[in-house]
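Q&A log
Question type: sequence-to-structure
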Amino acid sequence: MPVAISKLAKKLGFTESEMKAQILSLGFEADDDIEDDVADLIIDELTGRNEKSASDIYEEMSEQEREREIVKTQRKKRAGKGDRSKRKSSELVGVNNISGVIEIPESISVKELAEKTGLSAAMLIGSLMKNGILANINQIIDFDTALIITDGQGFTLKKKRTEGSAKDIFLGNLEKLLSEDEKTDLKKRPPVVSIMGHVDHGKTTLLDAIRDANVVSTESGGITQHIGAYQVEKNGEKITFLDTPGHEAFTAMRARGARATDIAILVVAADDGVMPQTVEAINHAKEAGIPVIVAINKMDKPGANPDRVKAELAEHGLQPEDWSGDTIMVPVSALKKEGLDKLLETVLLVAEVLELKANPNRPAVGTVVESHLDPNLGPVATILINTGTMSVTDNIVVGKAFGRVKMLRDHTGKKLESIGPSDTAQLAGLSETVKSGQILQVVKDEKTARQRSVHIHDLFREEEMIKAGMGMQEILHRIKEGSLKLLKVILKADTNGSLEAIKQSLAKVKSDDVAIKVIHSGVGSITESDVMMAATSPGSLVIGFHTEANSQVRRMAERARVEVVTYNVIYEIIDDLTKLLSGMLEPEIVTTELGKFKVQKIFFTGKGEMVVGGKISDGVLRKGAHLRVLRDKVVIGIGELAGLKLVNEDVDELEKGQECGVRYKGKIKIEEHDVLEAWIQEKKMKTL
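Response status: OK
Response body:
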């Protein structure tokens, strides 16, 4: 019910003209009658004015604009409308089909929530304010917040299946993107298989043999093209193979969190046995948590000795099934195409146990297998669909790239109209080339695709590489708080003798709370592959003994926040790790100067805090930094930079030459012409 301005004035102790002036100063329109929800906001503002802190004043720099927009919106909604309660009722019926359930996405603006629920935006904003959230009609709130501020309004909010956030796509967060599906929507899907193993053990020959013998039937005359993935058919069921060089692409996918592979086939030559890359592949599969099927290849060779291979694999944790273990090992000859049926049947058997499912009736989410620039088609990418269906003309976003699917074709060159879960195809229509392991998502329209790509581009700019690794400071912090129970070590040494000696010594390092596990070891220099494994296994260190990492590997480790440490004395390794487990490696404090700010105007002075305006004369200012207050070039006190405002926008950092507002916390009273020096202190771990 509207409130007369005269009654509101009397309630607050103003004359009618004073009341109008106060309302106008808050950014509202001073009509004779004011909507009750807007009146509540005005009362809250005016009765709380004498109790406001500097943070409130700081926010008021843009608050008037916010509330002015609220009133404008309410006027538009009221124009030509009847009774508000009738309108609310009719709108709710239109939205939820009289079921009392309204579907909203994971995040929604206040304006959109008002439109969907029939509640006024001003009422929603008032409810947000009562819960300590300052907002305008364009403020984005999450689903849980929407539940709180609409509680008791006679309807139920239900979370709508979303298209996932830009950050989920950027991080390759497949688990988050796939968890949107209801279990009742899930259908059986084909398994996705990667073939891994040591160089020259016959991975490519095995792939070719499987493809030639069991490829899904296609039009006659089809020419096989290398697109990085293909499907075969066995007993009427499909199997998808990722045809990637070694395990590099597999690792790249894991580095972005993408669990694209369901099963790994480890190829080991029967006449050669377990080799360094074999061990590396085993460790990658273990860390990824996927089942391994061993294909003992080259059984046609005179020196083939499958029992020796089984014994060597058992030493690395793969116990053969016929030796009472749980790893299935299938003897094959890729060259003579023998044992392939048994291998494929084994894949289907393992897949049945895994109960692989996906929802085909939703917009697709997929993973990039490989990508390149085609002279005729432009950027093309081979995509593995993890869930949903993708069709020609769909709008898509992949990392920083976006576009519309112009073409889909399989590895024979056959054009397709659509592909579903576990299917693969090469697509054209992207704005730029993409990287292996990045996530593809089908979105509703081109506008959404562009917006997502811009957001993801900003995330890429902020973070050059996904920092899945864990720096030394983070490792120590987690050990101290008790959340890190397993310290993983990737160990490289100059000789096998040194390697075994260090392993035995590490086994003797004891801690009640944290265990040490060597997840990979080998002879030779520290490589990019070692760093990548550490980056995809949080809580890992790379340790070298009498061996080094070149500058390129060091730079990669720094970007990935992976600690690489080298030693020349075994005792020092054991001593440092013992100290690390006991939390004795204390960090050193490093001070970094940021920038200078010249105070030109005082906006507000309160108890222990001030709001001042001025210009950055050198360097940068960063929210949360420490501040020195200089008067006539003499330090008179210190404080904290609690906030930065550029015009009406809150920002985290500003550069030299920019004029801005600063919220200062400290005991010293700042004056005009004072200089504020910003600096930060960081804890950095001493090198092991």
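Response note: The chain has a mean pLDDT of 78.
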